[in-house]
What does this fold into?
Amino acid sequence: MGGAPPATATRSTFRPELHGVRGLAIALVVVFHVFGHGRVSGGIDAFLAVSGFLMTLSLARQVEAGTLTLWGYLARLARRLLPAALMVLATVAVVGYFWTPSSQRAQLLREIRAVALYRENWELVDSQLDYAAAGPGTSPLQHFWSLSVQGQFYLLWFVLVVVATWVGARLLGWQARRSVFVAVALATVASFVFHQGWAAQDQQVAYFHTGSRIWELGLGGLVALLLPGLRLSTAVRIPIGWLGVALLVSCGFFLDGGALFPGPWALWPVGGVLLVLAAGTTGHRWAADRMLQAAPLKFLADISYAWYVWHWPLLIFTLLRTGQESADLRIAAFVVVTSVLLAWGTTRLVEEPFVRGFSRRTAATLVVGVTGVAVVAGGATWALGVVERHRHEALLEASRPSPDHPGAAVLGEGWTGELTPADVVPDVAVAGGDLPEVYGEGDCINTHRDVPSSADPRLCYLGDPDGDQTIMVLGGSHVTQWLPALEILADQHHWRLVLSEKGGCQFIDRPEPGSSDPPQQESCYQYNENLWPLIEDEQPDYVFTIGTTSRPTTGESTPDGFVALWDRLDQLGIPVLGMRDSTRLEESVPECLERTDMDARACGQERTWRMAEQSPILSVPDLPGNVRPMDVSESICAPDWCPAVVGNVMVYRDTSHITATYMRTLAPAVEDELRRVAPELF
It folds into this structure.
């Protein structure tokens, strides 16, 4: 810029090359969200570095000038962040009420509240949600996680700068900028070390964790404090500027950011931004900063915040309405163009007028901001309470035996009754939560995440604690889903049930090289190995597990890894009750039923689509002699079709798990099978 020494990066408050980086970063984010199928562009990491740069520089200048105040600081943040965010939240709340499946409304309300309170990253962690690729079942608000991290950073950074300045001046006699630099450097290093520890334990949590992300913002802050003293020749600044742009643009094509960020590889996009900042504004016709000052990038930078908050919910709702799993060119064009128009309108008609109108009215800004947040968060909390009460009442109603809801009985050979027309139970809005009670009460359910702590099995004791017959129930959720039937029988026949589950983990041995067994996480194999001391200690009369597995692409099989563990049980003299697995459907049943006006046949599928003609366990060569194959599929599916509703009871709560309500109606069929294969239990 004019007046800046040619060999020094510009010190101007407004940095046009940095503004251009914003435009480039938001374009990358949107393009990868629309076309990337879940790949991470690195644009978010670039935004975090830019935010750290600008906020650290602003705070340092204000403490040096003695103008920094808490209320003024919060008011500036509110003017910049809240208008567009609250507008999007209100829109998502209204559109979501009418368009999203009723089964997703509770989670949507939780996220609306979390976004309003700047804790969406923690909501995603608490809900165990992945940062998934765009799809009709994806949260329309998950992209707010990064803004929540930034909001938490802004509060933390204010405290850090104020405390560091006070300590440096009072105890060490340092100037403010030196104190701030040391504090930012320590926080940055601590965050990077913290991330390395978290990533080794749980990469999914580390991805969203504020503590893991601070170093990206802190690195931008360090560069902001160092840059005034940096002197580089134009011959150096031009190539490093282009290198920075190349790193930022290429990141998403070469790195799997979801698995690698915010670890050391995040230096690829963050370093790209920092190189552009170090290059500064050269004014040279062939420099990257000239490209970054181009009108299209400047326009995108001007609307970058509003574009970011609008594009994702628009994409998700569009996919939801069209029924497509991902965006084709037509949808992509619609989402990009419409979100740009919404962003431009929000920036020009909402954000800028609000900033101008309240620029010198600190108290009024805070009152309006707090009121807006309170209305949105409070409204979401109230609505969530209504939804949760309905959920509790609907599940309680579904749990009560009813002659109008015979469920599996209508598929039995002895059914001679007449099915009375009645509302299907459980209600589609709550069916996804129709789980075995142990999920809400027991501490024996290990997370599905591939973290070391999930490899330590825990036990729950159910049924009759004094029962003289013990059945150990082992495996993942496809085994635990049978508990409602098993608990009924255990109470009737005085059995003792011992459960241990790791989500997404089958009771399977580590495969041999070249095996076609369904792959499991490393923690799953370790978990299964760690079960053996518990099995030997419990000495159960039987182990209940699945005898086949139904996979989305390969159909039904009995993996070699199942047989290997059954053989180990045989050596201990423990019989195995191998239940045939439930099949897998194309679409979540509650959502399909809601979409098709309760068309049970349309939401089912042909019986042999993913199920074998005969249970594969019966064809296993050299099946260990302790294995007792069980099969109640005739009480779940008709001879040619697996319907979504049987006997006025919804069969599946998602694409593969049986509802607890239907499972209770399966108890007689399960008992018949147990009497056939394990008469010693009776």
Q: What stands out?
A: Residues 337 and 597 are 33 Å apart (CA to CA). The two ends are 89 Å apart (CA to CA). The chain has a mean pLDDT of 92.
